[in-house]
Amino acid sequence: MKIEKQNAEEQTLNQNQEKEIVNEVLVQVGENETENKNPEIIIVPIKRPIDFDGTFLNEVKLDFTQMTGTQILKIDAELRAMGTGFDDLWNQTVILKLMSRASGLLEEDLKRLHGADYLEVAFRTRNFFIQW
């Protein structure tokens, strides 16, 4: 009985520790590096930073924590006005609009990214919705 009680207490302690870890958004990894623990926030490093009025963009932060169905329906309405629609997650225009909403960057600014950086941000955006 003592062993079962001890195992139950250890399991409860482990579960509480896991909850604390999940609730932390950023964890110190190295001296200047942080690792994101919130699966709804994705930080994509940019290998070829671009200049925005004297400020270099060296990462794109995709924050899906506040993305709602209303926003997705607005994207669909915008696309329908352009003669297309939110047909699937393989449509690059759909992905661009989702990237823009999640990052807070303008679509035109995202298009300025180097092709490889652009595709990395696009893939991470698509994968977020596919894996959800």
Describe this protein's structure.
The protein is of the alpha+beta class and 132 residues long. The protein has two domains: 1-37; 39-131, no CATH class. Helix content is 52%, strand content 20%. It contains five helices and four strands; from the N terminus they run αββββαααα. The protein has helices spanning 2-23, 69-81, 92-103, 107-111, 115-131, and strands spanning 26-28, 34-36, 41-52, 55-63. The strands form two sheets. A two-stranded antiparallel ribbon has the order 1-2. The longest helix has 22 residues, at 2-23. The N and C termini lie far apart (41 Å). This is Phage tail assembly protein.
Short description:
This is Phage tail assembly protein. This protein is an alpha+beta fold and 132 residues long. The chain has helices spanning 2-23, 69-81, 92-103, 107-111, 115-131, and strands spanning 26-28, 34-36, 41-52, 55-63.
Question: Mind sketching the topology for me?
Answer:
Blueprint: H1 2-23, E1 26-28, E2 34-36, E3 41-52, E4 55-63, H2 69-81, H3 92-103, H4 107-111, H5 115-131
Antiparallel strand pairs: 1-2, 3-4
Helix pairs in contact: 2-3, 3-5
